[in-house]
User: Fold this.
Amino acid sequence: MESGEIYKKLNTVFEDVFDDDSIVVRPELSADDVDGWDSLTHIRLILTVEKAFQVKFSASEIGKLKNVGGLAELIRSKAN
Amino acid sequence: MSLDLFRSLSWLPAPPPDFSPRCRAVLDHNSETALGSRLQSLAAFALDANQLNHLARVISKAQKSHSSLQPLVPFRMGILSNSTLDFIVPALVATAARYGIALECIKADYDQAVQEALSPDSGINRAKPDAVLVAMDYRALPLRCNKGDAAEAENAVAQSLALIETLRAGLKANGKTACILQTIASPPERLFGSFDRALPGTTANIINRVNLRLAESVFGTEDVLLDVAGLAETVGLADWHSPTEWNLAKLPFSNSFLPLYADHVARLLAALRGKSRRVLVLDLDNTVWGGVIGDDGLEGIQCAQGDATGEAHRSVQRLALELRERGIVLAVSSKNEDEIARLPFRKHPEMLLKEEHIAVFQANWNDKATNITAIAKELSLGLDSIVFLDDSPVERNLVRQLLPAVAVPELPADPALYARTLAAAGYFESVAFSDEDVARASFYQANAKRVGLQNQVGDLNAYLASLQMEITFQPFDEIGRARITQLINKSNQYNLTTKRYTESEVAAAQHDPQCFTLQVRLSDSFGDNGMISVVICRQQTRSEWGIDTWLMSCRVLGRGVEQVVLREILEHARRSGIRKLIGTYRRTDRNKLVEDHYSKLGFTLTSTEADATATWELDVDSAAVEAAPMTVRSVGFMQETSHIAHERTS
Assistant:
């Protein structure tokens, strides 16, 4: 999957999870930048990403994520 | 796939693309509909976990600001669990609205089930909830014991039940509250293999026995069972249990089943509040049997054993009968002549359903919203008691739009799955079964009552306009010839003269300069209906056309097609200098339906014969036909200066 495609789809996921059409995802975006991105929402986000991209992450992979860039890279490594 | 059925709740209509903005805006505007009804409408869709979360946030906001949530019925429920409840609670609140309930959830602190149940000062007990959901899973139970040790195994079973009993007793001691007790979903892993089920002390063996005894201890009390074990088994234990999600956030089951779990809990709440549905209204053609009785006759419909399609529809009949046996009332709403619709019930040897099983039998040419309203009135039940089963997406959406209180399950393309889908939807969930239920079926007599035609309900025109129908008129041509010939020879009910022609006679009409021919196709937002009408006019004098043939597929009745066809005929008649249209109705034993066809189109009766043949005429110059809500395309007529079709919207 192309990087552009991934970010486009990720944006939709973020809009869905945070119920906010104005969200724009970029590689540096992290929990510090978004209101309501707490640990529960983080789980929701991970589960929604897995469903949207048809991929599965391990706990260890999730634990290493620091920002959206890391997430996009993880998706790219798994999605066809 | 069945998994999609349960994961996506595919008996519910898909949410509209503007669900999120609609959800956000639902508290803002003042509308004629009550807030509670607007929330219930939003919840009626097949919402995923995130959408349920957003809807729940809106509901909670309304509850906090003390807005009236009428007509939703308030319900306060406590939840105890050994696992994370934070995702479950919003799913429950949003889903409860689907069943007309304004739910307030009080959740116990994480893994504090026993403390909260036993302490009179706990959040749950102080709140005096109407019910408490005891959502414990297998990890909470003392299941470990030496395998093969029967005594130890019995002890583990007893201890597990005792824990649940402690919670139950504690909650009841602190207030009048019903307990909703979950059965235990066994993890799919086996230690020995098939042997696990029989050997005392294995996890599977202990859980089996706990579930059995739990069900027994709840039966007949005011507490109710939430059969999570059954639900997990239905979707598959290996999919239900997600080790990743437990490890990540102590989620007791895969979040993908959250909407399903919430729906099952909400059904119980609805049952407790007497809101379960009680009537199943059945469409007939292609629902209760394969085929169309009016066209295919007794010999042609499919409901026989040994035939795959027949078996599919028999399973619908079988489920309907079983529901009737437990007290659900059956009714029929079908677009057919009454006598013809009853024929299979009376004469077909393989029909499982008989006339005496049907409490109200509405077979007529009225729209189904009007018929269902009449059925509800006849049974003295609200529309919210009714479930309507119909294979046609057009009919389903009509009823959903005009009668939103009626439950209308979406059905898959394959009729073999109709029964499964209806059962999966759980409209008739019940927590008790009494003699009164058994007797209910016979309260409604064996005479399968027919209610007289009522005034039309709701804004049918608005619904028809929303179908975005497109009608295409063409003269006869080679491409359409086979289908034209087929329709001419097959059509019995909506057929004015029942003249049968061979393919070469159809070709002759096409090339005859004295003939005006029409092949008519209709498509709508649900798809292409193909060719649905055929007309042949023959020039009788310089200024008169006789309508030799006018037939139409009954599938598109009630949509204003006949009027648009007449408009098209008039348009071409005028262009050809015709002043008068002569229509003939030749009565047969199948076409009573079109007795008034010409009368309704504004023709004047000029003569009737002894054999009931009637001749009608219409003055072309003064005739005016109202535009119908559909796009009209007129293609391939010689009068056109170019061969390009022109589109005009009526």
Summary: The radius of gyration of chain B is 30 Å.
